[in-house]
């Protein structure tokens, strides 16, 4: 009887080991897939970033695990201002703006997508149809020569489309040309 229990424990230990190894394999695969997951931009923010996230390197780093975050100074019309740049695999993908809290994120990652399904690289005509175009404006400053459009059904997300054309600054191209412009940047803004 003692020998049987010992053997039974041995079998249970091997079964437990097999179960543990399968669990480790599944978890490892899930974590690897998570690293390849798209950056999803929602009405409330991107990743762990929202309008309550402190505009500080440590808070931004915690809200964007897996990204390398660095501070930079940029020059604008009002002088210099601070931004945080989040990079993934050495590529700058998210630029964050704010004061006390994060108020805006510009996302240019090739795998970025809105919760409504607009992806970086999508053509304007794939994202908008019919009267949706009335929500577009000509880009200004860094977005000059581009179309900045409120995402369909959104109050917090803008989409920046770009392409080439020779029209005057401060205007949008005709509908046929705009239809072929790809989505270059997704903007989440807490203050739209």
Automatic annotation (TrEMBL):
InterPro entries: DUF1131, YfeY-like_sf. It comes from the Bacteria. Residues 1-34 form the signal peptide. Gene3D superfamilies: protein yfey like domain. Keywords: Signal. This is DUF1131 domain-containing protein.
């Amino acid at each position: 009887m003692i020998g049987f229990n010992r053997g039974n424990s041995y079998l249970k230990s091997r079964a437990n080991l097999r179960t543990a190894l399968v669990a480790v394999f599944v978890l490892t695969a899930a974590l690897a897939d998570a690293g390849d997951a798209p950056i999803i931009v929602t009405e409330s923010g991107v990743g762990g970033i929202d309008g309550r996230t402190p505009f500080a390197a440590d808070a931004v780093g915690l809200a964007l695990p897996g990204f390398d975050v660095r501070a930079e100074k940029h020059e604008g019309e009002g002088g210099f201002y601070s931004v945080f740049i989040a990079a993934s695999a050495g590529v700058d993908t998210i630029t964050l703006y704010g004061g006390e809290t994060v108020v805006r994120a510009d996302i240019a990652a090739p795998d970025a997508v809105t919760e409504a399904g607009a992806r970086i690289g999508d053509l304007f005509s794939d994202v908008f149809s019919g009267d949706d175009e009335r929500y577009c404006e000509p880009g200004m400053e860094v977005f000059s020569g581009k179309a900045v459009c409120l995402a369909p059904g959104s109050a917090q997300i803008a989409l920046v489309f770009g392409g080439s054309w020779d029209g005057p600054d401060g205007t949008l191209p005709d509908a046929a040309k705009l239809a072929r412009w790809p989505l270059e940047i997704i903007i989440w803004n807490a203050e739209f």
